[in-house]
Amino acid sequence: MNCIIIDDEATARVIIGQLCSNVKELTILEEFPNAIQAIKYLNQNEIDLIFLDIHMPDFTGFDFIETLKNPPKIILTTSDSNFAIQAFEYDCIIDYLVKPISPERFLKAIQKAKDKSNVPSISSDSSEKIGTRSGNDLYVNIDRRLIKIDIPSIYLIEAKGDYINVKTEEKNYTVHSTLKKIEDKLPENLFLKVHRSYIINIKKIVDIEDNSVLIKRDVIPVSRSNRPELMKRLNLL
Amino acid sequence: MEKPNLSYIESMSGGDKAFEKKLINIIKTEFPLEKEEFYNNYKSENFKLTAENVHKLKHKISILGLEKSYEIAIAFENNLLEGDTLLYLEFEAILINMTNYLKQL
To answer: For chain A, what is the domain count?
Structure first.
């Protein structure tokens, strides 16, 4: 992992640099005494991990994160434990190290960064693929970006050749994947495959008529073999 | 008063004496500057900036293994943000303790 260190204290930068030197997967590319210099660097270089101090004059660590469009993984390093809750509001922050950082605690944070790296890497082509699921979220790879979709907001998924169309309350996503793959990533209690080309969110059903179901404004066919399972899931009077 | 020590630095270095020397030299360079800034801001009664100086000095206090002093620094930093300077003398004693220790390294 290519890393940079942002900390206004030289002592802290040297310590983090030393801790990194003991981990063969880490390469420190640059060190910065302030966030402004780092922003300029990040505009021209891709990195995997930032060790970021929160408490810096003029521009705090959180201000810095807000400026990043696609922030890499960030490990916060601070002498203040009071920001921990705020820190975890950011998806990019993977750990929060309170100074002085012990080698053991540092290694734990790096392990978290490595675990997070196991997310399928963003492919270089512009095709769209199913990413990974974390709690209520599903990540899909669209144009080199992992886009987060809130799973409960999905109401319908339809197969379209080599692609699937994921329809949510807010927008639709065309993803290069299969119904089978996405079915494995969705909670069984919420979603049901009602036809070889359709998976529906059963909470979003408006009504059912013979061999079709109305989801929002979409009328979806229900195959004969899947109908008993659908009926079983309904709270019938 | 508790005595500063190199336990943390040694735990970091894994026996790498060159690293220990490098780190101590950086602390010796940086500490007087931070201390000066602290005194200047305190004299100007800019307690918000003084609190920031204490915040930064806190790290060096902990690096030198001064656990009780670290707690005093946390309290002093918080108090300064409220305009309360009651712990000034205690904090100054910590800085003097560190200064004397760093001189002998």
So the answer is: 2
CATH of residue A82: 3.40.50.2300
Q: Which of residues 39-78 of A touch B (CB under 8 A)?
A: 55, 57
- Give ipTM to 2 decimals: 0.93
Together in a domain, A153 and A71: no
Does some domain include residue A123?
A: no
Do B8 and A19 count as a contact with CB atoms less than 8 A apart? no
pLDDT digits (tens, 9 = 90+) for A202-232: 988 999 887 889 998 888 998 888 888 888 8
Q: Is there a contact between A18 and B56 if contact means CB atoms under 8 Å apart?
A: no
Question: Domain limits at A139?
Answer: 129-233
Q: How far is CA A57 from CA A101, A160, A188, B50, in A?
A: 21, 53, 50, 12
pTM listed for this prediction: 0.64
